[in-house]
């Protein structure tokens, strides 16, 4: 591979990450309106234990400070292993502050902040199968990342 090909591939990956961030924002806003979001490591573990087939996306959010939290990293490792075993797409969100903004403004009108936003699950609404182009784009992004041996791709949610 030449330097030009490598540079072009890196630019394409950068664009793919940008569009994945926008798609994630859209998926979260739709999922919040349909009450198909589970927030929190403990709540996510309970849902994954009861109904893993209904989970379409797992988000793990941590900043640099959280990266030093050994207990949280153990939880992340176990959740990632379970999601891989059950073919659930996983994304790591590098700016948990923006994720909190999206979830809190949608879920509670910005009033009270839940204690744990490190793990977020998006499920299929029970009423019908979800045919969402943004979700399809995220699933495609996860698949392409796995082809490049990046099993838990990291994305950055776009700022307002």
Q: What does the main sheet amount to? A: 5 strands, mixed
Global structural class: alpha/beta
Widest sheet, order of strands: 1-4-2-3-5
Number of E strands = 5
Question: Which regions have little confidence, pLDDT < 50, spanning 5+ residues?
Answer: 6-14
Radius of gyration, in angstroms, nearest whole number: 16 Å
Q: How does the overall form come out from the CA principal axes?
A: globular
- The percentage helix is 40-55%
> Can you write the helix and strand succession as a string?
HEHEHEHEHE
Portion in beta strands: 5-15%
Rounded mean pLDDT is 82
**Tally of helical segments:** 5
Question: Termini, distance in Å?
Answer: 37 Å
List the helices and strands and how they pair.
Elements: H1 3-33, E1 37-39, H2 41-50, E2 55-61, H3 70-85, E3 89-93, H4 96-108, E4 119-123, H5 133-147, E5 154-155
Parallel strand pairs: 2-3, 3-5
Antiparallel strand pairs: 1-4, 2-4
Helix pairs in contact: 1-4, 1-5
Descriptive account of the structure:
The protein is α/β, with parallel strands linked by helices. It is built from five helices and five strands. The chain has helices at 3-33, 41-50, 70-85, 96-108, 133-147; strands at 37-39, 55-61, 89-93, 119-123, 154-155. It has a five-stranded mixed beta sheet. Helix 1 packs parallel to helix 4 (96-108). It is globular and about 35 Å long. Mean pLDDT is 82; it is low at 6-14.
């Amino acid at each position: 591979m030449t330097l030009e090909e490598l540079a072009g591939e890196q630019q394409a990956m950068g664009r793919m990450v940008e569009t994945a961030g926008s798609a994630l924002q859209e998926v979260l806003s739709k999922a919040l309106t349909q009450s198909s979001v589970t927030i929190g490591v403990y709540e996510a573990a309970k849902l994954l234990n009861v109904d893993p087939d209904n989970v379409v996306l797992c988000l793990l959010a941590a900043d640099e400070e959280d990266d030093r939290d050994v207990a949280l990293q153990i939880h992340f490792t176990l959740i990632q292993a379970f999601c891989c075993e059950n073919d659930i797409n996983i994304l790591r969100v590098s700016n948990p502050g923006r994720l909190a903004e999206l979830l809190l403004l949608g879920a509670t009108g910005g009033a009270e902040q839940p204690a744990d936003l490190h793990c977020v699950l998006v499920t299929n609404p029970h009423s019908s199968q979800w045919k969402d182009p943004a979700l399809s784009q995220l699933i495609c992004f996860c698949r392409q990342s796995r082809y490049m041996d990046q099993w838990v791709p990291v994305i950055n949610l776009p700022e307002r």
